[in-house]
Amino acid sequence: MSVEADSHGRLYLSADLRQKYGEKFHVVEYEDRLELIPIDEDPLQAVRDELGDALSGTSRAELREEALERAKQEAEEDLEQAKRDTGATTE
């Protein structure tokens, strides 16, 4: 499927897509593309529905610390992968 922007930069999505994914999207910009990520009407409720009771008994501070550690680890892994990829192309 393809869509075109109008002269004001607006994209028009079909009623079927809006019904399926909603009307709010987060735009993620990559080097070679854009992605539209649907935003739930109530994002917090969507998280609660997805996780259920998995977080009960865990403080916000603990969740924040765990999220920061996970993000740091993922960033380090991404950096290592980028170094390997760069090294592989220059050899």
TrEMBL record:
<protein>
    <submittedName>
        <fullName>AbrB/MazE/SpoVT family DNA-binding domain-containing protein</fullName>
    </submittedName>
</protein>
<dbReference type="GO" id="GO:0003677">
    <property type="term" value="F:DNA binding"/>
</dbReference>
<feature type="compositionally biased region" description="Basic and acidic residues">
    <location>
        <begin position="61"/>
        <end position="91"/>
    </location>
</feature>
<keyword id="KW-0238">DNA-binding</keyword>
<feature type="region of interest" description="Disordered">
    <location>
        <begin position="57"/>
        <end position="91"/>
    </location>
</feature>
